[in-house]
Amino acid sequence: MADKPLTKSQIAAAVAEANDLTKKQASDLLANLAELAISSTKDTGAFTFPGIGKLKLVNRKARTGRNPATGETIQIPAKTVVKFAVAKAAKDSIAG
């Protein structure tokens, strides 16, 4: 396992090198991909990163919870959350 995850500029440099692009073009490509993922998930409720996974909008139901400090029962309202499901192929190749 590496000491630290790659930074945005390191990812852009790796993409640029692999695809004969400038670092600026690769950085723009990554920014456009992130923008596309966000707008597509907002509009359709899901976005698939081929080979990596899927962003999904999920409606979470209202539920009863407990305040850990006081032990008091509280009502947690329903809300929409974003979840990421890792693709099976990616999971198998990373985790073995």
Question: What attributes characterize this protein structure?
Answer:
single chain, 96 residues, alpha+beta, HU Protein, Chain A, 2 domains, two-stranded antiparallel ribbon
Please explain how this structure is put together.
This protein has helices at residues 8-18, 23-44, 88-95; strands at 46-49, 53-60, 63-66, 73-76, 79-86. It has three helices and five strands. The longest helix is centred in the middle third of the chain and has 22 residues, at 23-44. The chain has a three-stranded antiparallel beta sheet with strand order 1-2-5. A two-stranded antiparallel sheet has the order 3-4. Strand 3 (63-66) and strand 4 form a beta hairpin. It has two domains: 7-43, no CATH class; 45-96, IHF-like DNA-binding proteins (HU Protein, Chain A, Irregular), CATH 4.10.520. It is of the alpha+beta class. The model has no long low-confidence stretch (mean pLDDT 94).
